[in-house]
Amino acid sequence: MKQFNIALIPGDGIGSEVVAEGVKVLKAIEKADSNIAFSFTEFPWGCEYYLKYGKMMDEDGIDQLKNYDAIYLGAVGYPGVPDHISLRDLLIKIRKEFDQYVNLRPVTLLNPTLTPLKSKAERDIDFLVIRENSEGEYAGAGDWLYKGKPEEVVLQTGVFSRKGTERIIRYAYEEARKLKKTLTSVSKGNALNYSMVFWDEVFEEIGKEYPDVKTYSYLVDAASLYFVAEPERFEIVVTSNLFGDILTDIGAAITGGMGLATGANINPEKEFPSMFEPVHGSAPDIAGEGKANPIAAIWSVSQMLDFFGEEAWGKAILSTIRELLMDTKALTPDMGGKGSTKDVGDIFIELLFA
């Protein structure tokens, strides 16, 4: 039997509600498959924890998490806590300390009625964005000089190391080769004359090792246009931390909204735990009302199982989400239905084992 130990960080707002439905799915799979077992340990960290204790997580939180097989995160963010604190002191801290340098965001249309794009079908919107997740524009490097004075100057430094740039681009080439798909690099070399020129050069250098992979390279403004106008151009996309963050929200918009947006923060070498999360935010305005859409959280369970090597269950979950989306009435209000968070989770499990 394979035993997977999972750290739960439900976090803030609707986080606990959607994580509960993801855990429900994992427990149902455990019951159905005698070869898999899951254990769960919950950590109360997040913004409400910060308001009580002045910190987003325990001082030794990283040490507490390091021996788990995966981290399952619900949401981060709450009124009264600045976003740069909630993000950097929990989510980004975990990503950096555990070297989760690969961020995987699928942009997949599971039901053609969900896209706002005229005449686009499921075959037109089906690609994967591989985002650098450990440095780049989110490295946190810079300075704030002469604060509050007329000559005030703020420096925010993007950090693009050769190691960090090479490994994310190589990971993307490997995925493209394995899946026999095209690879598109997104940068901004015409304006960012150091970081993005370097990115483009590394992309070309590594590409010489993968002559079988067909490649494209777009400026981020053009890529943003094509995400909306011609999403069928893309199969696998690799880009920097900031550009990937922005582009994948466009991806969510064209596939049905943030309630379906999921993300995996991967340490490919498995030296540290990887982290899986819906990326829709904490939505404090509807927390506790049972209106939260749990589909993205369940989709992140699919990503987790893929990472564990349980691809059959990962595919089964994705297929079941596709089936679930066919019945609008069963969905949560954000998708035009009348179902509660718990209702959607229950119906999902019924369909998974039907």
Observed structural traits:
354 residues; Isopropylmalate Dehydrogenase; 22% strand; metal-binding; IsoPropMal-DH-like_dom; lyase
Number of domains: 2
Q: Could you name the CATH topology of the largest domain? A: Isopropylmalate Dehydrogenase
- How many angstroms separate the termini? 24 Å
CATH class division of the largest domain: Alpha Beta
| Major sheet size, sense and barrel closure | 10 strands, mixed
By DSSP (H or I, 4+ residues per run), the number of helices equals 11
Report mean pLDDT, rounded to a whole number. Answer: 97
- Strand arrangement within the widest β-sheet reads 2-1-3-12-11-4-5-10-8-9
* Shape descriptor: globular
How many beta strands in the DSSP annotation? 12
**In the CATH classification, which architecture of the largest domain applies?**
3-Layer(aba) Sandwich
CATH homologous superfamily caption of the largest domain: Isopropylmalate Dehydrogenase
Helical/strand content category: alpha/beta
Question: How helical, in percent, are the residues?
Answer: 25-40%
Low-confidence stretches: none
Describe this entry's structure for a reader.
With 354 residues, the protein is of the alpha/beta class. The chain folds into two domains: 1-105 and 257-354, 3-Layer(aba) Sandwich (Isopropylmalate Dehydrogenase), CATH 3.40.718; 116-255, 3-Layer(aba) Sandwich (Isopropylmalate Dehydrogenase). 40% of the residues lie in helices and 22% in strands. The chain has eleven helices and twelve strands. The strands form two sheets. A ten-stranded mixed sheet has the order 2-1-3-12-11-4-5-10-8-9, with helices on both faces. Strands 6-7 form a two-stranded antiparallel ribbon. Helix 1 (15-32) runs parallel beside helix 11 (341-352), helix 7 packs parallel to helix 8 (241-255) and helix 9 packs antiparallel against helix 10 (311-324). The protein starts with a strand and ends with a helix. 44% of the residues are buried.
